[in-house]
Amino acid sequence: MNYIAAYHTDVGITKETNQDSLAIKIVETNKGPVAFGIVCDGMGGLSKGELASKEVTLAFCEWFENTLLDDIQNGSFTEERLVSQWNELVQLQNKKLGAYGEENHLQLGTTISAILMIGSEYYIVHVGDSRVYQFTKKVNQLTHDQTFVAREIAAGRMTPRQAKTDPRRNVLLQCVGASSAVEPEFAKGNIERNAVYMICSDGFRHQISEDEMLAKIGPDCSADAEKMKFGCMYLTELIKSRNETDNITVALIRTI
User: Fold this and answer.
1) What is the pLDDT, as a whole number, of residue 22?
2) Domain membership flag for residue 93
3) Taking a C-beta distance cutoff of 8 angstroms, is the pair 235, 250 a contact?
4) For tag attachment on the chain, is the N or C end more exposed, with fewer CB atoms within 10 Å?
5) Which tens digits make up the pLDDT trace of 124-157?
6) Does the structure show a pLDDT above 80 at 171?
7) For residue 34, which of 76, 75, 2 has the smallest C-alpha distance?
8) Cβ–Cβ contacts within 10 Å for residue 84, how many?
9) Helix (H, G, I), strand (E, B) or coil at 9
10) Would you tell me how many other CB atoms lie within 10 Å of the CB of residue 193?
11) What's the rounded Cα separation, in Å, for the pair 210 and 218?
12) Distance, CA of 145 to CA of 185 (rounded, Å)
């Protein structure tokens, strides 16, 4: 499997700082091309949300470059080992950010949504309400929002339409740094050829529909990185025109 990628991030129309952070890495290995993407949406006073998201993104990038690639090279990569490493990373970052917040008398934290694509399979680690999607001829959301409204919908106490405008829609059940304990969601699946895998912060998805996403950044519109970038920017401007108040971040990895 080969990959091409694009991304776009925007501070949005109201905030002074962009507290989102992202990274995409595509590397040739002895097992073939490997792709990794991550989006973290930080929260906290002043620039502290930016600090939280950046620190977690950097920690995952360091893991990718110094641990994962070694595991692939020496043949020790396994799903069990990956999940253990990711869980250890999340717990360590939660502890570090929590300690920093306690020392400085503030609360800060970040979501995590990341995907690793290796061989014929993808692996996902997820905390919070950023999302990972798969676009083929249809849209498939690969993560579950860890939010108050998502829990209420699952329990039948709220409809999706009510959740869209509920003032508690951004209340997280857990995040890295501001939760005493974090339980990441892990997922895996088979990689589809000629598909687009998208990671986004919640600011990207509130004001547009899945059909609009598919029409601008789905496989039919993502023949190369330039077209993918254009789609990301087009949708971001559309979101801003609809008065989204959050930071907006989207990262795309296309399989070819």
Assistant:
1) 98
2) yes
3) yes
4) C
5) 999 999 999 999 999 999 999 999 888 988 898 9
6) yes
7) 2
8) 11
9) strand
10) 11
11) 10
12) 10
* Helix H or strand E segment including 217: helix 210-217
Q: Are 115 and 36 in contact, with CB atoms under 8 Å apart?
A: yes
User: CA-to-CA distance for 76 and 232, rounded, in angstroms?
Assistant: 36
Residue 157 lies in a domain: no
Expressed as residue numbers, the domain containing 15 is 3-145+174-255
| Separation of first and last alpha carbons in the chain | 6
Tokens (6 digits) for 238: 């559309």
In the block, tokens 């990959």 appear at: 3
Query: Quick one: CA dihedral 2, 78, 86, 129, positive or negative?
Result: positive
Instruction: State how far the Cα of 134 lies from the Cα of 190, in Å rounded to an integer.
Output: 11
Contact between 121 and 190 under an 8 Å Cβ cutoff? The reply is: yes
Report the number of distinct structural domains present in the chain.
1
Residue 102 resides in a domain: yes
Q: What is the CATH number of the domain that holds 100?
A: 3.60.40.10
Q: Mention every residue, 6+ apart, whose C-beta is less than 8 A from residue 75.
A: none
CA angle at 94 for the pair 198 and 186, rounded to the nearest 5°: 40
pLDDT at 253 > cutoff 90: yes
Domain presence at residue 68: yes
Token look-up 């020392």 returns 103
Cβ–Cβ < 8 Å for 143, 152:
no
Helix (H, G, I), strand (E, B) or coil at 86: helix
